[in-house]
Amino acid sequence: MTEAGGVLLSGEDFEARLRQIGAERYHNLHRFHHRLHSGQCSFTEVQAWALNRYYYQAMIPIKDATVLTRMSEVEDRREWRKRIEDHDGLQPGDGGIERWLKLTDSLGFSRPYVISTQGILPGTRFAVEAYVEFCRSRSLLEAIASSLTELFSPTIISERVAGMLAHYDFVSRETLAYFSQRPVQAKRDSDFALNYVKTHAKTRAEQNLVLAALEFKCSVLWTQLDALWGAYVDGAVPPGAWVAGQGSDKEQAA
């Protein structure tokens, strides 16, 4: 937890506190990710992960659009809208969402089923929508701060890609293409966000809001993996959520 008030942290100490949050709370530490990267997940568990993660990916540009509308500086808007372009693409067949759909394609899902989100876990939906609402209703400073999990994403991406390619014969570099561009994009985005919060958090109270926003975002990511573990590792799939065999192209054709 962050302190209420106190002495303004130096830029160096403030950044160190942010990075400490990632070291302690980022979801690379979650047991589901250890299971995924080490090859212990079943095909069904990988399917469930990709299906549920789609909702997060699809809602990111919507979240970013809400942030964009609140930016008064043209330079900030120009920089932030790159995030939307990264996910939506500049033309049909381009962008991060399209690349994620190629992953779910390769795992046997029909696109209409994935895009409908009808099979995602309640925990996934609640966590993602809480994040979008956070960025809509909290201050611009807090909304930008919540994106700082991107400081830590290059490490988890390298672990994920290397581990999945080593352990699962049903994935390839092509089907994992979403991750090929993310490290560069995440570095650009986190550089902007880090500079923004260090510049605009002018009091210790504002710095504390930034720290709390990053903690919240880490919890959003962690909660999604908790939901996956409970449903597909422990086997407590909630009513209405996807079960193996649903949402396939074969099922749709039938």
From TrEMBL:
One GO term in the molecular function aspect is: pyrroloquinoline-quinone synthase activity
The UniProt keyword set, sorted, is: Oxidoreductase, PQQ biosynthesis
Give the Enzyme Commission number.
1.3.3.11
Thiaminase-2/PQQC domain ranges (all copies): 16-226
SUPFAM superfamilies with a match to the protein in the record: Heme oxygenase-like
User: Gene3D superfamilies annotated for this entry?
Assistant: Heme oxygenase-like
Q: List the catalysed reactions.
A: 6-(2-amino-2-carboxyethyl)-7,8-dioxo-1,2,3,4,7,8-hexahydroquinoline-2,4-dicarboxylate + 3 O2 = pyrroloquinoline quinone + 2 H2O2 + 2 H2O + H(+)
> Which Pfam families does this entry report, sorted A to Z?
TENA_THI-4
> What biological-process GO terms show up in the record?
pyrroloquinoline quinone biosynthetic process
Q: Pathway it belongs to?
A: Cofactor biosynthesis; pyrroloquinoline quinone biosynthesis
Function, in words: Ring cyclization and eight-electron oxidation of 3a-(2-amino-2-carboxyethyl)-4,5-dioxo-4,5,6,7,8,9-hexahydroquinoline-7,9-dicarboxylic-acid to PQQ.
Q: State the family named in the UniProt similarity comment for this chain.
A: Belongs to the PqqC family.
Which NCBIfam families does UniProt cross-reference here?
Answer: PQQ_syn_pqqC
Protein name from the UniProt record: Pyrroloquinoline-quinone synthase
